[in-house]
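Reopening closed ticket. The problem is back. First fold of the pair:
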Amino acid sequence: MFIGDSISINQWQSLLCMLHAAVPTTSGIITQDLHNHTVSTVTFKHYKVSVMLFRSFYLVDVDKETIGRVLKLNSVRNGNLWKEIDVLIFNTWHWWHRRGLKQQWEYVQVDGKIRKDIDRTVAFRTALRTWAKWVDSDVDTNRTKTTPFKGSIYPTGLPLAGYAVKEVIRNIKKPVHLLDITMLSQLRKDAHPSTYNGFNSMDCCRPHRAKHDALHNQYLGYNVKCNSSIVDLQKLNKGKWTPPYSNRATQPTMKKAFPWSLCKALVKP
């Protein structure tokens, strides 16, 4: 189960596309939307495997009260739905600093007191401690994986050249700063495919078709269209260009069947 925001959604979609490419037919694939569209499940019936997504911006609870939506930093009742899962993958932070219309709550409750707002880093740390207590008290390590792979045996890694660069830079006496784009790209390879791929749809399975992938767009801070190959460097140099913030989140809610047809374009090894 992936638990988190759009980063978790992208990871979930990407894994499903890879699994779909490996199964001989879609006849045994079942899609479900549960708990008021909070949980999306895709089950590969013949293999007795389910890949699930639990949407949670903050991991802790957000409840609708008479005063409005309350972010409860000491409560993680949603954990009751996570207990029986074999592998849990958590993600949070992206939404903690949001304000205004993008803020998903009106009040914060901490230690029994309700406030209009508190320092976001303090709130984040408090929520993580609540989540950590849940892990210690409710996760059965005999069933649920907390470390799926050890670093020494994980079947991937950075290119060897990357290690060579870091080793050499460590031995330089004068300060040299390395912007490790390769490492950064490994953290989130697909970014928001539906926003940046130029097709205006969820297309995580055809990244090779776009001229400008999402990673380069996010590094530049510029939403480069697929039919554009030149960035106006004059605007950049003269300071007239401001990196826009895109809020065009077009992730599927699974109210309809997962778009398996998009996955057919995967490049087979």
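Second fold of the pair, where the issue appears:
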Amino acid sequence: MATIASNVIQFTPRATEPEAIFNEYIEGAKTLPIIAKSQIVWNDQKWNLKGLAKPERPTIKPTVRFPDLSPKFLEFIKAYVAWNVYNDFGQNKQIFKYSAPVRNAKYVQAAMEQHGINHPCDLNPDVLDHAVSLITGREISAEQNRGKIGWFIDVLIEHEMQNDPYEWTPLKQTVSTEKNKSRIRDETSHKS
């Protein structure tokens, strides 16, 4: 079910079972007015958000490309984007707000496959910690990596779409102090 709050439709589940709430979230997203009135075709692998989001560069269309995910997870990620675009309507946010969580969903998908999980409602902290460890790129903290997948994980938690309820924060990582030393000389380093 959707309710109107300050000119925005907020997702409010009627169901109480996690998978039923999950399905309501997806079906509610498919019926949002923005889906019907925009260039979004639900079943497409990429959505053109022209007029709904700012592009990364002026010469590129603001597009969200969905990775190869399991059908249920893909539907959830599309619903996540649809609800966020709708709730941000008129604010013209950067496309990165929508494309970054979508891009990083592949790490959660990989962790789900490695743990034998087929449905996002069955995610648990061990799988999410594993997903964080799969994130590539420059060395950054666990908290920053959590942010890369936390956007849509928070939706699962907020709306109680977990078969086994949990709270999740990433594992703490330690960083060598050698890498964090200041490049500014101390008072004695210039004296010989």
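Update: turned out to be a display glitch only; the data is intact. Residues 2-172 form one domain. Residues 1-6, 173-183 have pLDDT under 50 and may be disordered. Please close again.
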